[in-house]
Amino acid sequence: MKARLPAAHPGEAADATSWIEQELAGCHFRDRRLGQRLRKLLTHMASAIGGSIPLACQDWANTKAAYRFLSNPKVSEHEILQGHFQATRTRFAAVGGPILVLQDTTELTYERAQHERIGATRRVNSGRDKAGRLRMHTVCGLLMHSCLAVTADGLPLGLSAIKVWTRPQFKGTRKLKRKINPTRVPIDQKESIRWLECMRQSVALFGAPERCIHIGDRENDIYEFFCTARALGTHFLVRTCVDRLAGDGQHTIADEMQEVRVKGLHQVEVRGPKGHVSLATVELKYRRIHVLPPIGKQKRYPALTLTVIHAQERHTPKDRARIDWKLIADLPVRSRADAIQMLDWYALRWKVELFHKILKSGCRAEESKLRTAERLVNLLSIYCIVSWRIFWLTMLNRVVPDVPPRLALTGLEMGLLDELVRDKGQVMLRSKTLSYYLTKIACMGGYLARGHDPPPGNTVMWRGLSRLMDIELGARIGAQIYG
């Protein structure tokens, strides 16, 4: 008896346009064959998440073609990701409300015999020699700065900008600071320019700067960034680490905030070093302040009126550091509710950290054996698409669990999941939501789906997705052979 493939949903062909086609539809290469190879390579890498290129490609012909694609001088991260950027813009336009553009930098470390072909990231202490002198060695690798667009509910819509770079040699930052005041160096001569460039790219991509709120950590406390956001008509929310001059220039922001009374309390969930979750009570202060540029840049940049928010824990806990957040934004805060909303938005900055975790732990981007920075950057671009897909499905299950499953899955995938993961008891057809099928994918990755279990996380999702794509490929090949 011949096995039959699960039927597709009405109005959907059995060979429905996959998510890969949707993410790469906006890619344009001068040579059409490069686009075809990218689709095939992304399919292979998505079906073997965390595996090497030979493992994903399975045979020498496809492996060799993958290496040629990654080393092709006509291929760059821009060509690979431009389709995903366009898909992100489509999802941006489809949702309403403010969109948080989360920026962060991550480091990818590699060890190579010819380290100059990769570049340097930093210098670290490697112990002392026999004479007792400190030994320093250069860490080789890449630095990647990402802009991840998420909704206010935490649903990742996709990347809006990316910048990958390396250093020909590492120069000691502390030594440079002894000779040069970093605040006097023009921003376009520093690596910090990446924050401004990625904000410009994101605004140009979405075309609606008033809806974007660019969020960064203390490294993003850059006055030029604030001025650029104002010029672009967009918004920002940054954790500040610089006590800037304020008012008439005779005092600082900290001086003014000391005069502000506590305007409310707020409870936040905090996870301790051992994973224990507790509630912490923080005191809220906020004020609209006239902020001045650094002294060396006052002729080039105007003063700005910004909102400063302080959230400090009332008591110092014994098992962790005290919560002490100092945020600066261009948006007004008129009430305690507005201040809490700012805190909630900034807390979502952790999402971009999770994206980088999937990239490095799930896709194992740092385990690649490619020999040059250019090839590694191209491979990282492909991994970025796979990582976003995993993160997106994980968060869909938490943010919009009751939407129709065809938002993310094809009829073939749903049919296979119904066959592979049997239902316990009788399940009504109308109850088969997206969450229903995503839970089945997680079960294929080791999720137990017990009543008291939290929603599935990224790890079980990437395991389950990898298995599902392998089975789907086998089902398609079986259909071609046996009809």
Describe this structure in words.
- It comes from Microvirga tunisiensis.
- Pfam families: DDE_Tnp_1 (PF01609), Tnp_DNA_bind (PF14706).
- One of its GO terms (biological process) is DNA transposition.
- Residues 17-75 form the Transposase Tn5-like N-terminal domain.
- The structure is a single chain.
- By secondary structure, the protein is an alpha+beta fold.
- It has two domains: 76-395, Transposase Inhibitor Protein From Tn5, Chain A, domain 1 (Alpha-Beta Complex); 400-482, no CATH class.
- It has 15 helices and twelve strands.
- The strands form two sheets. Strands 1, 2, 3, 4, 5, 6, 9, 10, 11 and 12 form a ten-stranded mixed β-sheet that branches. Strands 7-8 form a two-stranded antiparallel sheet.
- Helix 14 crosses helix 15.
Question: What would the keywords be for this entry?
Answer:
40% helix, disordered N terminus, 2 domains, 483 residues, 12 strands, ten-stranded mixed beta sheet
Round the Cα radius of gyration to an integer and report it: 25 Å
- Structural class comes to alpha+beta
Largest β-sheet summary: 10 strands, mixed
Order of H and E elements: HHHHHEEEEHHEHEEEHEEEEHHHHHH
Q: What share of residues are in beta strands?
A: 15-25%
Q: Please, how many helices?
A: 15
Q: Under the CATH scheme, which architecture of the largest domain would be assigned?
A: Alpha-Beta Complex
Q: Mean pLDDT score, rounded?
A: 87
CATH class of the largest domain: Alpha Beta
Named CATH topology of the largest domain = Transposase Inhibitor Protein From Tn5, Chain A, domain 1
The number of strands is 12
CATH H-level superfamily title of the largest domain: Transposase Inhibitor Protein From Tn5, Chain A, domain 1
Unreliably modeled segments: 1-17
